[in-house]
Amino acid sequence: MMHLTLREHLVDLVYPSQCAGCGRPHPAAICGPCWRRLALRAVGTDADIAALARPVAFDGYRSGGEYRGAVKDMVLRLKDSERRMAGPLACLMLVAAGNDPRYLAPDAIACVPSTRPKIARRGYNPARALALEYAALTGAPLIDVLAVARKTTDQDAIPGHSRWANVEEAFAADGPVPQGRIILVDDVVTTGATADACSRVLRREGAVSVHLLVAARAVLRRVAITASSARITQ
């Protein structure tokens, strides 16, 4: 697990740590009982890739949990400069991997790159922090072979249907890509647009397969149309 930085120790002195699940004071990101509940939910098979809006270049994906509750809290804290959240989230990702060699024994692990301003603001790239932890858990090498090729609008700031065009050709190779099985790591998958754009680069540069592994997957919103809310025309 990643050691706390001096900054994180100082933050703990001012704002004591709380469990992301129950909110009680706890020195770690999450307490034992809450961790066990999340781990039981993380055990699973491939997520439904067909549920994504479009066909994608990665071959399948798994997630440590749904983007809600304690998992969402840990992801948001990771995005907000609490790098130690990467450890427990990576462990959930490992649980989600199950016994599947595609996720447990890849030839290499890559991560979705971040922009320099974001890295400067946080001090790190959340996706790379997760990839580092997952690489340590599995023994697979982490490769920094993806880079941001052009400026884009923040994906969180635009609707889902616009995200595909926003990241088209937004990434490029920044080193040799192994001709083998690659795991692509990110913090959250929503539409799959960003992971798809990165996967296309990896496949184009020689990856035999790309499987996406994320800390959380967005919860699809289901809109129920009822007679009272719909306008019925005769």
Key traits:
234 residues; alpha/beta; Rossmann fold; four-stranded parallel beta sheet; two-stranded antiparallel sheet; 9 helices; 14% strand; globular; disordered C terminus
Task: Explain the overall architecture.
Helix 2 packs parallel to helix 4 (86-97) and helix 4 (86-97) crosses helix 7. With 234 residues, the protein is α/β, with parallel strands linked by helices. It has a four-stranded parallel β-sheet with strand order 1-6-5-2, with helices on both faces. The chain is globular, with a radius of gyration of 18 Å. The chain has helices at residues 6-14, 32-42, 69-79, 86-97, 101-104, 116-122, 126-138, 160-166, 193-204, and strands spanning 60-63, 108-111, 146-148, 171-173, 181-189, 209-217. The protein has a single domain (6-217), classed as Rossmann fold (3-Layer(aba) Sandwich). The protein is 37% helix and 14% strand.
Number of helices: 9
| Low-confidence regions | 222-234
Q: Nearest-angstrom radius of gyration?
A: 18 Å
CATH class category: Alpha Beta
Number of strands: 6
Question: Main β-sheet: number of strands, strand sense, barrel status?
Answer: 4 strands, parallel
What is the CA–CA distance across the termini?
Answer: 63 Å
What structural class do helix, strand and pairing data support? Answer: alpha/beta
Percent strand? 5-15%
Major sheet: arrangement of strands: 1-6-5-2
The 3D shape can be described as globular
Summarize the helix and strand pattern as letters. Answer: HHEHHHEHHEHEEHE
Q: Approximately how much helix is present in the residues?
A: 25-40%
Question: Could you report the average pLDDT, rounded to the nearest whole number?
Answer: 86
Annotated CATH architecture: 3-Layer(aba) Sandwich
